[in-house]
Amino acid sequence: MLQDLDAILLARIQFAFTVSFHFFFPAFSIGLASYLAVLEGLWLKTGEQRYHDLFKYWLKIFAVTFAMGVVSGIVLSYQFGTNWAVFSDRAGPVIGPLMAYEVLTAFFLEAGFLGVMLFGMEKVGRKLHFAATCMVALGTFVSAFWILSVNSWMQTPTGFVMGANGQFLPGESWWDIVFNPSFPYRLVHTVIAAYLTTAFVVGGVGAWHLLKDRTNPHARTMFSMAMWMAAIVAPVQILAGDLHGLNTLEHQPAKIMAMEGHFESHPNGAPLILFGIPDSEEETVHYAVEIPKASSLILKHDPDAPLAGLDTIPKENRPPVEVVFWSFRVMVAIGLAMLGIGMWSLLARARRKLYDWRWLHRAALVMGPSGFAAVLAGWITTEVGRQPWTIYGLLRTADSASPLDAPAVATSLVAFVIVYFAVFGAGTWYILRLMSKSPMPGERGVKHGEKGPIRTSGITPGPTQNPGRRETIPDGEDEA
Predict the structure, then answer these.
(1) Signal sequence span per UniProt (predicted)?
(2) Torsion of CA 464, 466, 467, 471, to 10 degrees
(3) Residues in a beta bridge with 389
(4) Contacts 24+ apart (CB under 8 A), 171-176
(5) Tell me: the pLDDT tens digits for 121-153?
């Protein structure tokens, strides 16, 4: 049976599966690192214990999330060599240095200060510890910068020259590669999505504890901060998404055509198809519910502006319309729901009922994981909409894969599915368990081991490992 499967399709499924799992954790840790910096900054400025308690509460969750993000990301780099060796060979001179810079800057920055952030509050002083927290938050942003630069270059390749052996080589300026046409829009849109993802997780946790006790001061603080973020940032994200869409229309028109479901060109204004069932075989959208000329108004800011359709694109160069059409609508629907929650919270705040409206709390709880669904839907729209290319317009996916047999790819895919669900399922369950417990006054942070650090060489025991006597660690020393 495995012999009949398509090795390239299996390789695509494998990469999509592993990167989807990985994407969840950075999408959360980017926003959570910044949230921790805000909490610690507020604590230093105001001296209020509740901010310190919340910092320690979310620090434990961040530690687990960050670890799972690192582990899940390692696998992706190996797949470039195993399943996509041709792509790695041809695009390596461009994307290799960019990914190396991600390690040399972002990862080293995060790794250098993470230990201080997790365990150093009682060791280095408050201000230096706050600086370490800010460096970790900066590191998560820098990591997103380089990874999105690589992805954006694959979407809108610029600044390269073709080598004699068919390789993509850097041109005269690396800046043209790094700051390719779609990169600024994708960076802003993705980072804001990460902040909203974290905001709705924090808001969902706060709502959960408010539903159990609306007087809980920690839950009130979490919920209030999250709702401010939703109310302010969700409209900004919609604007950023609109600008990103206009940029995509300019550089990847086929992707926009698939997102809109425009199989036919519209010379006198294109309708906005809200819902329907796209059919690539018949090149139509069945049961379409549409607003006349609204698509031209959104994309061209002119209701009568002409818009080209997929009938202008050769069939072999069209993306899978059905997938892109629906993933885009899922992303937009969740974004509008986030905006609705934000506006609802403003109304509740204006009426001094933010902590009393139970239906608002229930809605926020339901919306807790919505950010993850939105970023996944957005990623599917971006990546599937680029097909059939790995480097848009220049290198096809079918020409990028390693010469592997289907059984080999299928075997590793099954192994990844089993291991990922077991390992990261357990990690997610542990995070949810941490969230289910309310922050407490004097919240305990990340704990040290009872016997000190593990020693890999030498025979000198740590202070508490001396068999002749046992020292007692003072209260607070086992806290972050």
Answers:
(1) none
(2) -40
(3) 396
(4) 174/97
(5) 778 888 898 999 999 999 999 999 999 999 999
DSSP state of 313: S
Give pTM, 2 decimals: 0.86
Per DSSP, 311 falls in state: G
Question: What is the rounded (10 degree) CA torsion for 194, 195, 197, 199?
Answer: 170
Measured between alpha carbons, how far is 14 from 413 in angstroms, rounded to an integer?
Answer: 5
| 3-class secondary-structure state, position 277 | strand
Phi, psi (deg, nearest 5) at residue 287 = 55, 40
Using an 8 Å Cβ cutoff, are 230 and 368 in contact?
no
- pLDDT value for 67: 86
CA 379 from centre of chain:
9
Q: How far apart are CA 110 and CA 17, in angstroms?
A: 26
For residue 473 the two structure tokens come to: 């660690």
SS3 280: coil
Cα separation, 198 vs 377, whole angstroms? 17
Distance CA 462, CA 465 (A): 5
Nearest 5 degrees, angle CA 427-CA 33-CA 195? 95
Residue in the block written with tokens 């924090």: 202
Nearest residue to 51 (alpha-carbon basis) of 210, 224, 306 = 224
| Pair 86, 402: CB distance under 8 Å | yes
| Cβ-proximal residues to 110 (8 Å cutoff; 6+ apart), any chain | 66, 135, 136, 139, 140, 143
**Across 98-154, where does the E strand assignment appear?**
none
CB contact set of 156 (below 8 Å; sequence gap of 6+): 180, 181, 182, 183, 251, 252, 392
pLDDT tier for residue 467 given thresholds of 50, 70 and 90: very low
Q: CA-to-CA distance for 56 and 443, rounded, in angstroms? A: 6
**Residues 375, 194: contact at Cβ < 8 Å?**
yes
The gap between the terminal CA atoms of the chain, to the nearest Å, is 53
Gap between the Cα atoms of 321 and 337, Å rounded: 24
Residue with structure tokens 């001094």?
352
